Amino acid sequence: MGETFYIINNGDLRRKDNNIIITGTNGESKNLKVEVADEIYIFGEVNLNTKVLNFLSQNRIILHVFNYYGFYSGSYYPRETNVSGYLLVNQVRHYDNYEKRIVIARKILNASAHNIYRNLRYYNGRGVELEQFMSQIELLANTIDDGNSIEEIMGIEGNIRKIYYSSWNNIIKQNVKFDKRVKRPPDNMVNSLISFINSLVYTTTLSEIYKTQLNPTISYLHQPGTRRFSLSLDLSEIFKPLIADRMIFSMLNKNQITENDFDKDSNFLYLRENAKRKILAEYDNRLKNTIFHKELGRDVSYQYLIRLECYKLIKHLIGEKEYEAFKMWW
Question: What does UniProt give as the signal peptide span (predicted)?
Fold first, then answer.
């Protein structure tokens, strides 16, 4: 696995010989080590030119850009070199055939619901009373396979998440009132954290898709549309409970992040620079966490689990093996 570089300070991004150099406003420079880089995240106001973008393309490095508030703006996605017309045709066929599409959509939502349930079971076993929420989610999850349309099963998933988020006040030890998920814009510290870290999972998923022959714009749960990589939205649903949610619970319960890390005048929209650094360091560590993979017989990182998900989907699309979405077993 290659390295991920996070740029938070303002400055200049430029090419020097066969490397990318970031120079901060304080004059300090850092070599981003292109030979080991997979992706670069920019959170500050950074100046760059087409020379840099061309060099990133040559080295197949994705550039993810976030705005002043830490919300995802977009990605510079280098020209694809790992392509397969055969896979592309089959990927489109599975979208265009509604019966085939909904099979994949159900698999994704079943896995997402399962992983949500496992999170609640994890904390329920640690002295937090969550059985009521678990029972409600289990009942709803059992109806996903009976859904006859994408809209219907996404409605079920929406109800599952509503119940799930209503349990968070029981899990989070800080005195923060979190009633419901609000996205545009987030209305409190917890919603801002969810938006920020979910966008990190989305971009990591996009980077892993890029390393395979899948087309990131053709999806099965979310409707493909312009200006978005909708397959990343699909697959990140599976991994948000494992990577994003558990990270939020841990950091809040250890008081690594508090309301003091946000600008209260912006209604907790703006995350202070030091807090971003803490979150990104923790996120990077989470991606490097390993678990013993029973089928492979070896330890794999959380980040590589996402790549494996892409490979499993490819095998399904070409008729080699039926897709079974990732479900936490620990």
Answer: none
